[in-house]
Amino acid sequence: MRKQRGFAMRTLARVAVFAALIAVLGLPGSLNVFGNAVPITLQTMGVMLAGAVLGSWRAALAVVVLLVLVAAGLPLLAGGRGGLGVFTGPSAGYLVGWVAGAAVTGWLVERGGRDPGLVRLIVACLVGGVGVIYLFGIPVQALVTGISLRRAAWLSLIFLPGDVIKAVLASLVARGTQRAYPDAVPAVHQERLRSGGGR
Amino acid sequence: MNALTGAYVPGSSPLHRLPAGAKLAGLAVACTALVLLGSPLALAGAGVVVVALYALSRVGVAAAWAQVRPVRWFAVALFGMQLLFAGLDGAVSTTLRVVLAVALAGLVTLTTRTAAMMRALERCLSPARFVGLDPFRLSLLLSLTVRSVPVVAALAARVGEAQRARGVERSVRAFAVPLVVGALRHADALGEALSARGFDDL
To answer: Same structural domain for residues B68 and B160?
Structure first.
């Protein structure tokens, strides 16, 4: 097989579709958890899923692509938010944290080889999808709003239970996806691409 | 705000005519200045400048409000909290700083076409060519993503209907697994089609 000149189209397509998937998980009315009572945005779940399925740097790229489109003015964030305002607002750090969070989730899942178990998926989603995102989000929130780091951390505790539930859900969904479609395991996909890409 | 046209308000003001890159750079400088401005009086002055810029752009009050609206409750909560802990001066300046930064960024969004902004951001991302993402692949990636949003949304609607028919609409897992598998299948078919048409060699 000839040496690739740049990104393989297969990689490009996966990154684009997952960036779109993260956007769709935030669209109003596309998904109602527990009936209509609780309006929960599943966008961070999409970030974790991208990590678990695409692997580290592809997932990070998918999030970057989504954020670029948001910055360009498309209303792709949960609740139809978009434009440059979200990057100067108080939750800007969380958005930047998505990039690192997706990468760390993917890195941890990649370490699991051909069959990352449910426990590894849960740990990866909790560390990458909650821990790393908070690590970026809390300091920026403290900086923008001028409150102390400690108080910002306390305030973010309100969102912690929901985010932990989303991380567990994301790992369950990733596990189900990888069982139904083995190519959804980053290591398996890599192997197949290396062996010539054919089916 | 239309899903795929963004919030752009057509116009011919000086702000509309500025290149997107210049507006982005200006926004970065202005936001840094906002962080450095300490006193409520200086920030009130900055507020007057922002209002003047909005007037100059002639985007209308409704469009301006739509940009600031998402942070309105946050601003109220922040003001209350700062009033308690940092006094009136601190509360006024912190709240003004947040609202003005969001309003300024919104002004750039309102006066710049999505396509022009995308081109400017693509230029910012051009160092990505060193990791194999040349300008052709970068813009293909961005436009493929924009095109994939309605495709994946339609997929989500179809899966949702199927789940309702089966009576498992309350389960996130029963919804998301078919959605992610379907999206992956679509992505891999798309990648294969692009590869078969020789896009890998471009």
So the answer is: no
Size of interface A-B (CB pairs under 8 A): 231
B29 lies in the same domain as B117: yes
CB contact under 8 A, A89 and B175: no
pLDDT digits (tens, 9 = 90+) for B38-88: 788 999 999 999 999 999 999 989 989 988 887 888 888 888 888 887 788
In a domain, B90, yes or no: yes
Q: Which CATH number fits domain A9-194: 1.10.10.10, 1.10.1760.20, 3.30.200.20, 3.40.190.10?
A: 1.10.1760.20
Do B100 and B133 lie in a common domain? Answer: no
User: Is B104 in the same domain as B146?
Assistant: no
Q: Is residue B76 included in any domain, yes or no?
A: yes
Range of the domain at B192: 129-201
Distance from CA of A97 to the nearest CA of B (A): 18
CB distance A134 to A47 below 8 Å: no
Q: Looking at chain B from residue 78 to 117, which residues have their Cβ under 8 Å from any Cβ of chain A?
A: 78, 81-82, 85-86, 90, 94, 97-98, 101-106, 108-110, 112, 114, 117
Q: Are residues B133 and B113 in the same domain?
A: no
ipTM for the predicted complex comes to 0.89
Q: Which of A10, A42, A68 sits opposite B125 (nearest CB)?
A: A68
A195 vs B55: CA distance, rounded Å:
60
Q: B186 and B137, same structural domain?
A: yes
Average pLDDT over residues A44-69: 94
Q: How confident is residue A15, by pLDDT bands cut at 50, 70 and 90? A: very high
Q: Are residues B108 and B138 in the same domain?
A: no
Contact A9 B195 (CB under 8 A): yes
What's the rounded mean pLDDT across residues B15-25?
91
- For residue A155, the surrounding DSSP H or E stretch is helix A149-156
Domain layout of chain A by residue ranges:
9-194
- CB–CB of B181 and A177 under 8 A? yes
Q: Is A19 on the interface with B (CB under 8 A)?
A: yes
A188 contacts chain B (CB < 8 A): no
Under 8 Å CB-to-CB from B155, ≥6 apart: which residues?
Answer: B179, B182, B183, B186
- Of all residues in chain A, the one with the smallest CA distance to B142 is A65
Structure confidence at residue A128 (pLDDT): 96
